[in-house]
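Recap quiz, item 2
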Amino acid sequence: MDAINTKLYRNNYRLTGQRKAVLNVMMENKGRHLSAEEVLWEARKRIPNIGIATVYRTLEKLASLDILYKSMFESNKFRYELSEDDKHHHHHVVCLSCGQISEVSGDLLYELESKLDQQGYRIIDHELKFYGYCPLCNKDS
Amino acid sequence: MDAINTKLYRNNYRLTGQRKAVLNVMMENKGRHLSAEEVLWEARKRIPNIGIATVYRTLEKLASLDILYKSMFESNKFRYELSEDDKHHHHHVVCLSCGQISEVSGDLLYELESKLDQQGYRIIDHELKFYGYCPLCNKDS
DNA sequence: TCTGTAGATGATAATAATTATCATTATTGT
DNA sequence: ACAATAATGATAATTATTATCATCTACAGA
């Protein structure tokens, strides 16, 4: 949390009640992937009159500082999750049956990235999504 | 092309002039990732009064038959590319400087998928994106 | 080749997510 | 406490996509 405060401070971002509320929502939901609307409802439990525009602005700011990670799973709706410290790599498994999204740990793409380096690319980050069935849904079928 | 025709036929989709136009646009741009609007402009060179709704409907139909592959790179806009036969895996490198999107060949995720299998998942497909700088932009910087 | 019909089309309204605008308010350095 | 300026809420605007519906057309069968 302190690290986050410092980051905001360094970028001349004021720590308003609304931003604290959004941050708290994201931290209480660490590991989950929330849409802007979902964040709005949660944030309203703290600041009842917070507006959707502020939520969008805050989420974008936090994402631009790598405090949040922004991605899209289903159709045309972005989701945000709290970044784990300086972990830049995001590996997700999306269950085609129940929609559950889980995280895969481990960075097994090192090999592939270095191959691209040799071809002249400079790779900064990557993003990996698996589509299939989670253990629960797999058992049912 | 014949394989595609057969696929459409088997699914009771009529081969209209509009669909032919969209298909031709996609085939002429094999390897590129086009937005619905870009497809519209190209298709209008053949069928000047083709409507945007038809383009969307056609792209969705073709994607549902795995003739096209649908994905999103930048903000809230889907892009479509011609699928290479029955290749299901899509590995892209997105250049953060010029925006160029190139394809990475090879399926190096087998190992990771089998690990997930052991955990009870059943993985159907995956999608991988690298973000960085392409050889040309990398040289400039 | 003609015809009936289900499926396809174009125009456009509707929807949904996101972004922009702007007057008002609140935070922070001094 | 104050001034400067960034942030906020309300809402209009924008953008991408989907739905609606009257009209049209591809295609199987006579």
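The radius of gyration of chain A is 17 Å.
The domain at 90-140 of chain A is CATH 3.30.1490.190 (Dna Ligase; domain 1).
End of item.
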